[in-house]
What we know:
By secondary structure, this protein is α/β, with parallel strands linked by helices. It has 2 domains: 72-181 and 330-394, D-Maltodextrin-Binding Protein, domain 2 (3-Layer(aba) Sandwich); 183-329 and 403-455, 3-Layer(aba) Sandwich (D-Maltodextrin-Binding Protein, domain 2), CATH 3.40.190.10. It has helices at residues 2-31, 83-97, 110-115, 130-135, 143-148, 158-168, 189-194, 206-216, 258-271, 282-287, 297-302, 304-307, 344-356, 358-367, 376-379, 395-399, 415-430, 436-455; strands at residues 72-78, 101-105, 122-126, 176-180, 183-188, 218-220, 223-228, 290-296, 312-315, 332-337. Helix 17 (415-430) runs antiparallel to helix 18.
Amino acid sequence: MLNREKMLALAFAQSKIFAMLGLVLLLLLAACGQPASQGAGASAPSPSSSNSSSSAPPTAKQPAEAGITSPVTLKVADGLFTEEEWQTIIVKMISTKYPNITLERTSGKLEDLVAAGQSPDIIFQPISSTANLMALDLPLDLSPLIKQHNVDLNKIEPVVVDALHKFSGSQGVVAMPLYVNVQALLYNKDIFDKFGVPYPKDSMTYDQLLDLVRKLTRTEGGVNYMGYLPLTWTAGAGQLSLATIDNKTNKALVGTLEGYKTVFQFHKDLFAIPGMKPGNKNIFYKDHTVAMQPDWLQSIFKSASSLQGMNWDMVAIPVFKERPGIHSETDFHAAFVSKASKQQEAAFLVVNYLSTSTEVQTVLTKEGHVPVLTDPQVKKQWAADAGFMSGKHKEIILESHMAPVRDIHPLDRDANVVIKPMGDAYNAVIGGQKDINSALRDAAEAINEAVAAKMSK
Length: 457
């Protein structure tokens, strides 16, 4: 009987111990934020899944929530950012967002890296380099990853998205845009003041520009001053969205589109002004003998040190009267993911974060890169940290209206197919060797021959 009482007492004591242990376990689970009903082996819900019904379904990855749980090193071929930007913006912000991702800049030519089987995971290049990258079979179609991660391309400027699709062609979406590149018309105030000519105005017509050039092009004290120098023969062609080769027929369009005659006529009239002669933009930046110089924004920033010793400002670039209010062709710099990458998911997370996050876009914008996002709160901070832009008429950068990108043909940026024949035609026209119609007709024939030769291989 005594043994039975002892056994009952022992059982009662054990039950109390188990009850206490259960209570402790419940308290521990509550402290960790895990509902007791899930049990010790269940996973805690993510912040998004415990949110309201507006959150994405648990199976859909969100860019801000998809993570890389193991260390990953991504090699980046960077043709865009300075060393300071690379370290203080790209590397710093990616390491903060994705601690397990390490970015390494590659060195050497992209072609050599591909040939050696060392293709980078990510490539930073102007979107105009797409055809060259496709020739190397590098760009990955990002469409499936964009869909998988619910990326909202509506956050990006519509003209940029349209251009992205045109450059991608049948390949889907081959890049994520990083920042926009626009043109501005720089002018040397001292030259205007020297000759008593009023400063240029925003969005002058090219006819008004020619009037200014005539007043500013002269020789004074043995120095030849010129009113304006175009960048290339393409000046104005982008504004008119002029295609070079028809995608359906693979035939040149340069001899049939009226816009090319308009562009060439401006250049012919420009260099017919006494004292005007072809040159490069170093004459403006270094010699200080050109009154007005159009340039791309990224080039202007790279030339900031040259501008320090000049009394300069800028206005919106001239426009053709046929297309008022429309400025340079849509151009932007972008991030591509390589098909050869073994870490495509991680690479996409990086390029998408750089492209669509307000955090990165705001930092880039403050440095002077025009954002690809439509967010007005990001835009208003343009060039806030770019000291050399202080006091300049920088409002025109965000107010410039980009022209839609022309129809893109895979060969229209090939140096031998289009650039050389058009360059020859341009030189013949401004040099007086050929009339515009003949020069453009000859260029079209040369382009057609080159396209046929390329496509027969």
